[in-house]
Amino acid sequence: MLVHGSLAVGAAAFGEQKVLAESFALSVMTRRGYGETGRINAVDVLSDAEDVVEVLGEGAHLVGTSMGAIVAMNAAGRRPDLVRSLTVIEPPAFALASDLPAVRRVSKALRAHWAIADATELHAFVVGFIAALEMNMPLPDPLPAPVAAAAVNLVTERPWRVDVPVGAVADARFPKLVVTGGWSEAFDGISLRLAHLLDVQCHCLQGAGHAVQKVGAPFNALLRRQITSI
Question: What confidence score (pLDDT) does residue 230 get?
Answer without folding.
Answer: 72
